[in-house]
Every structure is written in C-alpha cells, then in structure tokens.
Amino acid sequence: MADTWTVLQSVAIVTIFVCGFLGGVLAKVSQRHAFTTQILNLAAGGVLLAAGCIHLLPDASDGLKDLHGAGDYPLAPLLAYSTFIILMLVHMLAEYFALNVAGKTEDRAELINSQQGDAAVASALAAQLASSSNPRRWASAIVLLAGLGFHSFLAGMSLGAQKDVHSVVDILGPILAHKTLAAAALGSSIVNAHAPNHVFYTLITLFALTTPLGSVVGLAISQFSDDMVWASAFKALAAGTFVYVAVIEIIPDALSVKNGLMKLLIQFLSLVLGFGLMAMLAVWV
After folding, report:
1. Is 95 part of a structural domain of the chain?
2. Quick one: which of 147, 151, 136 has its CA closest to 92?
3. For the chain, which end, N or C, has fewer CB atoms within 10 Å of the first or last residue's CB respectively?
4. Buried b (16+ CB within 10 A) or exposed e, 94-119
C-alpha cells in the first residue's frame, strides 16, 4: 500500500510539472486567441472556487473539529481566509513594487525630455529606453512569478500532506487546471518582456517546479503526525488559496464587458460551467 501511495504521489507531482511547463510554452507559441484564453480562465476560476468552498473547506472543517483544545472554534475558515488575506498582502506589495519601477522609468523619460528640449527626440529616446531594458514589463513578469509561485507552493504542500485518494482527487484536478493557465499567464508576461529563449524557459521551469517542491515539503511535514490534522490544515490553506486565485486574480481579469453582451454571456456561462461541474463532483468524491 505504501509503494502504491508513493507511486500515486510521484505521478501527481510529475503531471503537475508537465502541465506547468506546457502551459508556459503554450503562451509562447500562441498569442492571438485572447477570447478563448478568457473562456478557459473563467472555467478554471469556477473550478477553483467550487474546489475551495465546496470540497476542501468542509473537509478541512471535519478534520479539525475534534482537534484538542479547539472546541467549537471554526479553525478551518480561520486558516483559509487568513491565507486569503496574506496572499492579498503579497499581491498589494507586488503591485507597489511594479508601479514603483514603472514610476522610475517615467521619471527617466521626463529627465530625457527636459535635457533634450525636443519632444520628438525625447519620445524616441524614451521608447528606446523602454524597448531595450523593458523595466516595467520585467518587473511585472518577476512579480507575477513570485506571486503565482507562492500560492502554487502552498497548493503543493496541501497535496503532499494528503493521505487518501479521495483527498488527492479533490486537490489535484484544480491544481492542474490552475497550474496550466497560470503558467500560460506567466509565459505571456515573460514574452511581453522580450526575454531571450533561455531566460524564458528557465523562469517557466522554476515556476513549474514550485508545486512539486511544495508537495515534497507537505509530504515531509505530514510524516511527523499519524493523524489527519496536518492534512486537514493544509486543505484549509489550499481552500483559501483557491478562492483567492479565483476571486482576485482570474475572474476580474477574464470577465470583460468590452467584448459585447453575447461574448460576456458566453464568458459567464463558462464560469458557471466550471463551478457547476466541480460542485457536482462533490456527489461522488
């Protein structure tokens, strides 16, 4: 049984890495299908939202309710939404960093303008400055890598800490969906920064490795306890992570009113479909 469980975890880790890497490569080879990408992102957002709220959080609550000293305190929601708040803080700091770098770039362009006295020359030099180093786009790409990598690592820890097939199924599907689409978003950001091929593949590989590394750490931590406390705690962390990714990162960016009413309805139905299918899965797993 132990050997079978090791094989299952190993297959899950390899599959997550492959999905993460291929998602990034997909962004590099296909840049002209924005509406299709939005639909897929919204479906994934629905899957993540249902996975966090309907699958993981109730399971985590059941696993933690008998924890010694906890009483009737809702530990699972506390862990889940504390994770949500921490990820939001990381996001805010990342946005500040990106805007700060962008502001410095604009200041340098204004300095060029004041020194040259010719708006056309200043504009050309500023454009050359932006195209040569791409500071704002590089900042966005690195910030995105850090943010996505952080909650991918947390999701991996949650997967590694699980001790039964039912729990792995609950977490693995949403992780695969999110990993692929997150890697595609990261890949697009790196491509927009005009990164050389070796830099592109290095960054995508690093991102693809974050969830497998988290799985190894979660598996190691879970070995300290024979009960389900660690697994339930990591389920709560995963629930908060999935809800954050869906509500803050995926759905607002992908659900666009600029595409017209019909496309907006198609996007919304994609979100509902992803949520509904994952919610229906709770009947069997």
Report:
1. yes
2. 147
3. N
4. beeebeebeeebeeebeebbeeeeee
Q: How many structural domains comprise the chain? A: 1
pLDDT digits (tens, 9 = 90+) for 29-65: 765 567 777 787 788 788 778 888 888 888 888 878 7
Structure tokens at 241: 């992570």
- Domain-located, residue 6: yes
Cα–Cα distance for residue pair 183/178, rounded to 1 Å: 8
Can you list the residues of the chain whose pLDDT is less than 70?
Answer: 1-6, 30-33, 66, 68-71, 98-99, 101-144, 147, 151, 185, 189, 192-193, 225-228, 283-285
Q: Decide if 233 contacts 157 (C-beta within 8 A).
A: no
Against a cut of 0.85, is the pTM above it? no
Does residue 128 fall inside a structural domain?
no
122-145 burial code (b ≥16 CB/10 A, e <16): beebbeeebeeebbbbbbbbbbbb
Instruction: Look at residue 158 and give its three-state secondary structure.
Output: helix
What does the alpha-carbon distance between residue 45 and residue 50 come to, in Å, rounded to a whole number?
Answer: 9
- Could you tell me if residue 157 is inside a domain? yes
